[in-house]
Amino acid sequence: MKKIAVSALPQLLEAMAAQQALYLPVQQGRSAQFTRYESGMELSEALNTGRSAKDLFFPQVENLVDFKVTGKAIEVIESRDVGEDFILFGVRACDCRSFDILDRVFLGDPKDTYYENRRSHATVITLACGAPEETCFCTVFGIDPADPAGDVTAWKAGQWLCLRANTKKGEKLLASLPMLQNGGEDAVVAAQAAIHAITEKLPLKDLNLTGFDGDHLMEKFNSPQWAQLSESCLGCGSCTFVCPTCQCYDIKDFNTGHEIKRFRCWDSCMYSDFTMMAHGTNRPTQLERFRQRFMHKLVYFPANNEGIYGCVGCGRCLQKCPISMNIVKVIKTLGEGAQ
Ligand code: SF4
Ligand code: SF4
């Protein structure tokens, strides 16, 4: 374990940024967002960022390849970003777990080499949650906000910032920062106890996921409750864009007049044209689209991934949905004991 005075955090950030690109939550208006560090920037005190840390591995818009068309000849031009090593500092436990979920999607067979490239360049430093909020329910998914994963785990513990390396990459980074001192174990134990005292009182800590699995797939799919749950959904897609585990995207070509740029951008299963095909769409109403989002996270994903849910309980969709619909309401309505 290493430690440094919290008051020396600016020097620590400078030292890390001198080695590699550094991204951290920085306050931008009313919300914090992961931002590339520039001298003088301060770590936001916000519990979580408006958009999640997945942006660093799966950006909202990304160029894939360019084409030049001359007559009948097509030249393929590799335009991918070769990438650089970077440090992702201040990732919360829920967002860090979302990387495991995204890895299952993008690093499965066949691998998404764009995503893999960014993942391989990153050193992730998580930050334990000092004050989890009432919208947080990560513990329901077995996540401990007092002991997040990552290459390095950090805790703000009284006057100390304590750091523990969890991987070789993390050890190498901490060893390269001479301003760190040894110690901090006792401060971390106290900080973890304080965090657990809060999580034990959170209103959503007992959310019951019983029955959300592949064995109950048709029962959940055919529930009459979807009609009432989806009735007011605007199909705005906000819930999908703030979600750290949502991974739908579209691929499009843009003709610049000189060449074709093929790019991908986030899409949403909440949108009416997401499943549009030559014959039309197979999810013609918002009921089917709404059901898909929650069936995927709560039933299909765990059925195909050893019981791992496609939600990490970050609470962003609880805060952002304009009609106050969210995954918690779905779980409570369709869950054990409900029809
Ligand atoms: S579904 Fe909601 S609570 Fe779950 S990970 Fe996505 S945004 Fe967070
Ligand atoms: S559930 Fe809410 S945030 Fe998601 S698409 Fe519907 S209205 Fe928008």
TrEMBL record:
InterPro entries referenced in this protein's UniProt entry, alphabetically: 4Fe4S_Fe-S-bd, 4Fe4S_Fe_S_CS, Helical_ferredxn
A Pfam family the protein falls into: Fer4_22
Superkingdom, taxonomy of origin: Bacteria
Matching PROSITE patterns: 4FE4S_FER_1, 4FE4S_FER_2
Protein keywords: Iron, Iron-sulfur, Metal-binding
Domain 4Fe-4S ferredoxin-type: 222-254, 300-333
GO MF assignments: iron-sulfur cluster binding; metal ion binding
Name this polypeptide is given: 4Fe-4S dicluster domain-containing protein
Lineage: Bacteria, Bacillati, Bacillota, Clostridia, Eubacteriales
